[in-house]
Amino acid sequence: PMxxxxxxxxxxxxxxxxxxxxxxxxxxxxxxxxxxxxxGTNTVEKTDKIVGxxxxxxxxxxYVVSKDVCIDMIAGPSEIMILAETPSDPEIIxxxxxxQSEHGDASISILVTNSKSLAEEVLASIEDIIRDSPSKAxxxxxxxxxxxxxxxxxDNLDYAVEAVNLFAPxxxxxxxxxxxxxxxxxxxxxxxxIYIGEYAPTALGDYCLxxxxxxxxxxxxxxxxxxxxxxxxxxxxxxxITLEGxxxxxxxxxxxxxxxxxxxxKRSLEVRINKTxxx
Length: 279
Known about the structure:
There is one protein chain. This protein has helices at residues 11-20, 31-39, 56-65, 90-101, 116-131, 135-148, 157-167, 181-187, 202-207, 243-260, 263-277; strands spanning 49-50, 70-71, 79-84, 108-113, 149-153, 171-175, 193-196. It has a 5-stranded parallel β-sheet with strand order 5-4-3-6-7, with helices on both faces. A two-stranded parallel ribbon has the order 1-2. By secondary structure, the chain is of the alpha/beta class. The protein has 3 domains: 11-71, no CATH class; 79-231, Nitrogenase molybdenum iron protein domain (Rossmann fold, 3-Layer(aba) Sandwich); 243-277.
């Protein structure tokens, strides 16, 4: 894999890039990569828009240059929130929470449930997973879950939904009785991507469900969804107005210009009206 002291590029990245139609690859990373893309160098061409997630230094650099170049969003650290009730499988929930820790430091794993017994079973399953993990992974999981993990027990699913909408998670797994799914879904307003049922784990979405997996984090799901083709499309409004159309809509424009007390906006419109009347 690409890293410090390793001049090669991971072959998986090369194959994926070729399949996606990429025709140029720069082997760079970190804050200096964002700067190079934003302003250009002797070897890196200046770009019009920067998209995609990365580590903390990449994200910091991307944030700094966002005043000078368009970006999609600041993505990361990764998040998962699981909304569950009995009789959900506690081992499945535990593995999904632990798996989130593999994304790196500060990855957030939260379970919100209306069942105290399920919460206790999930906690016990997490302890079993940690105990059976290799020592290196064990230490990392413990650190991440202690600092950025949580199990919340609420009185009912409505409170659970409220917690979801307040947190606006990047990934939301819903593990509830099937007949309740439509009602709960209709109340979810803020989430980057939603996975329903025990056979739709976030890990599957990470790799091969087909939807884009560059998703809003840090509450940004309140205002936008994941990266999509729209992030690569620029819309330009084009206006052509006939004389008849101008005379129809200018009446409202004059009212607004008066309201805002924009004298020369108003005169810009009136001069056209006057010239039209003299023709």
